Amino acid sequence: MGNNKLNLVSPPKVSVVIPHRGDDASLELCLRAVRAQEYPSRSFETIVVLNESLERDLSFPLETGEKLVIQSENFSYAARNAGIRMAAHEIIALTDSDTVPKASWLWEGVSAIAGGFDLVAGGIELTFQRQPLTPSALYEKLFAFDQERNVKLGQSVTANLFATRKAFETYGLFAETARSGDDFDWTKAATAKGAKLKLAEGAIVQHPARETWRELARKAHRTSWYFPRTNTIQMSKNLYSRLAVKFAPSPSDSRRASMTSKERSIAKFLYFLVLSYQTVIVALLLAWLAITPGQKTKRVSNPRFRDREG
Fold first, then answer.
1. Residue 197 and residue 120 in contact, taking contact as beta carbons nearer than 8 Å
2. At what angle do helices 135-143 and 261-291 cross, to 10 degrees?
3. In this structure, which CATH number among 3.90.550.10, 1.10.10.10, 3.30.565.10, 3.90.79.10 belongs to the domain 12-210?
4. What DSSP state is assigned to residue 153?
5. How far apart are the C-alpha atoms of 62 and 67, rounded to whole Å?
6. CA–CA distance, 88 with 251 (Å, rounded to integer)
7. Which of 55, 93, 217, 230 supports an S-S bond with 234, CB 3.0-4.6 Å?
């Protein structure tokens, strides 16, 4: 295990940041898994950022070492920024409220960071409710949250990302108004500027798969239409960059090996349906941009970090 690299008496301290909105049941499952970490509880804090328009209490009590921060504006990236600002420690572990981290998650992720990396992409294990798997679930199994492939492209999702505090100080925070996709944009920009990114396959969180076409279409719409509005030229470059990756699907070897030839064929058919849908959305968006002034997206550079309650 990676924890052999760490000082077991005094391991690095970690701030776990979890943006949340909606039903609290999944968040409670996530927090139970965080509380059950093999990492010493005295060495990490957990910051839950409630990203809803109305302030409210959670449906269950928080425990020692956990705090709730309210971020009522914008979406999950603004919530992550709020949590990062409140973080007290030098290592930030990002995940989502619908994940269930495995017990060795923090040990494995922090061990990789301790090896001299700025960013660490942890593994994501999809969970399925339906058997046999639906076509949409097969699509997810082959393509979704493929961190092995992501790292080869210099990017990671924030559903399982470890970063040093210095990385955020150097490369800025996420785009405040972004609704989707800024995890890829931020990590790609950071690695392009020299940030060192590592895959930690043992730092695993479980994430529910999307198992219906409606769920896939909803995500395709969100990741295409709700794109940070910059000027038309920059917007076109960003959209082209995302679609260029989508037009050249190359799942990791481990993903391909986990499926039969027939399952892969079904997944690829769904892939091109999703891609076609996204292409239409992007065409409409570019047409809209051509006649509408862009609203510049705010990315927070050189943020000030504050260790206080919101």
1. yes
2. 80
3. 3.90.550.10
4. T
5. 7
6. 37
7. 230
* DSSP label at residue 2: G
High-pLDDT (> 90) share of the chain, % = 70
Q: Are 182 and 156 in contact (CB under 8 A)?
A: no
Name the burial class of residue 29, with classes exposed (0-12), middle (13-18) and buried (19+) by CB atoms within 10 angstroms of its CB.
middle
Token pair recorded at residue 29: 């499952």
Q: Which positions ≥6 away from 181 have C-beta within 8 Å?
A: 223, 227, 228, 242
**DSSP line for 247-276:** HS----HHHHHTS-HHHHHHHHHHHHHHHH
Residue count of the chain, please give it: 310
**Tokens representing residue 185 in the block:** 């944009």
Q: Are strands 91-95 and 160-164 parallel, antiparallel or unpaired?
A: antiparallel
- Given the structure tokens 């923090």, which residue do they identify? 106
User: How many other CB atoms are found less than 10 A from the CB of residue 282?
Assistant: 20
What three-state secondary structure class fits 133? Answer: coil
Edge-to-edge, what's the strand order for the sheet holding 14-20? 66-70, 44-50, 14-20, 91-95, 160-164, 119-127, 197-208, 100-101
| Domain boundaries, given as residue ranges, for the chain | 12-210
Q: What letter would DSSP give residue 211?
A: -
Q: Which helix (H) or strand (E) holds 239?
A: helix 232-247
Name residue, tokens 């009590």: 61
The pTM score is 0.86
Query: pLDDT tens digits, residue range 65-106?
Result: 999 999 998 899 999 999 999 999 999 999 999 999 999 999
